[in-house]
């Protein structure tokens, strides 16, 4: 559905000064997939969407979207896709139903199709109570739903969403995701989206593309990225430092743990599949008479993956602190 090869996009910011918003970006998205683009501010996520939706021409490389070359036929691309950018849905007087129908006419759909498509989306996105309201009167979450409906009126097989949940409270974010998941079930819509919420990408995306300084630095399922780049973090507390030193040796002898370190009476380590390795490790320690006083097993996050790949956090001002999964 999307095929991107060595795509570059350079902007001139001043005389003799350029920004490479995208550098040698290659990836593909299969039909029906939901892929999330993650990256810090200025990484190039929105530029990637703007190039793929035919709004900005790339300066190198090639991209085909829904079978159409974005450089040769950007208008053709736009006719085949839905794009919900940041800050769509200007605060205007137009009623929601007029807006939805106007969108169908702009795409040249027959009247009967417009009526049927709008009716279906109104039900799916629960817009029934909002139809006669002016767009300016809607809340952020309601407007986002209308934006998505607008993107879908022409029934595109492919939808681009630029930060669809930014600015929404957790309740409305969850609600919007229910709608997005519903769209996929109903229409098998292929979706490429950007988000700053790592948990959303983790939970809903089949694949995550991590972008940094205009380059794709990782492309895989969230589970594999976490397993391959981070693994579980384990902290074991003992009564005394000499016990911790002995335990660290046992850890190294009996597991494939990485980064094993001792800090006073505490041992830190990282291990793949910690939930199965740790019980075995506890048995070995127990067998040699070493008692673990406290154990913390920390599930990796996509932020840990980014931290591991770049040495920086995706969340500004963050240092590493995962949420403890199990504390014994
Ligand atoms: N029209 C433009 N002219 C000049 N520079 C631009 C333009 N659009 C984007 N850039 C620059 O390209 C880089 C990538 O920007 P982009 O908006 O794609 O990042 P992003 O990952 O979407 O960031 P954010 O998460 O903050 O939205 C940034 O350095 C940005 O300043």
Automatic annotation (TrEMBL):
Chief location: membrane
InterPro entries tied to this protein: AAA+_ATPase, ABC_transporter-like_ATP-bd, ABC_transporter-like_CS, ABC_transporter_ATP-binding, DrrA1/2-like_C, P-loop_NTPase
Cite the SMART domains for this sequence.
AAA (SM00382)
Which residue range or ranges hold the ABC transporter domain? Answer: 2-238
The domain of life is Bacteria
Q: Its family?
A: Belongs to the ABC transporter superfamily.
Report what the protein is called.
ATP-binding cassette domain-containing protein
